[in-house]
Amino acid sequence: MAGNMLDNRGGGDGGWSFPAIHPEGRRFGLIAIAISLAVLLVLDWELLGWPMLALSAGVFAFFRDPERAVPQGSDLLLSPADGRITQIAEVEWPRELAAVPGLATGPVWRVSIFMSVFDVHINRAPIAGSLRDMIYMPGEFANADLDKASERNERQHMIIERGDGTVVALTQIAGLIARRIVPFVKNGDILAAGQRIGLIRFGSRVDVYLPAGTQPAVLMGQKTVAGETVLAHIGQSRLIEGIAL
User: Has residue 1 got a pLDDT over 50?
Assistant: First the structure.
């Protein structure tokens, strides 16, 4: 129900419903349906038309935009993307970020989240703060799961600074199928943790660079939910272990 408030005391309607479709995707879905119906009804190519119609439903599903329960805490660094963690490594800064004031010097922890075409593709702010800078870099469209994609693929960096000076950088990376990075925000915007900040069309990757003195609180292969999964506790460094089932 539109406008219905949910809370942790049992208030609101918890029934299942179709998630909202982000406006960015509605036109793509309608275009896909129109082409499918033309193939099916005008050209009478049923063998092709029915699969295309099913694919049209997939286009709408790609742009789904479910609500999220954003955890509260000044030390929390949240996942900006739905997907699977495919890389956790100490790395040097990308060349375009190496000289940005306020970022930690030397190697930093980078957590990479790969988004398949089946994941929600709305990206969200990992922390609350001011969007200090956005840096767009043209590049290739290689497989976003490769390590070299961080420096070769088309990408967009976002640098978010909290009131206490803590800075978190994230990078939206285009891939083989993803051909456009769409921001919802601009330089100087004040962001809330978990706020929608953009999307990458049709499968790709997001890198998160952790602040100094902070280590990941997630594991390789773990599934993440944008705006809900805690990637790290800012200022905390401790070993995290899990069991592969």
Answer: no
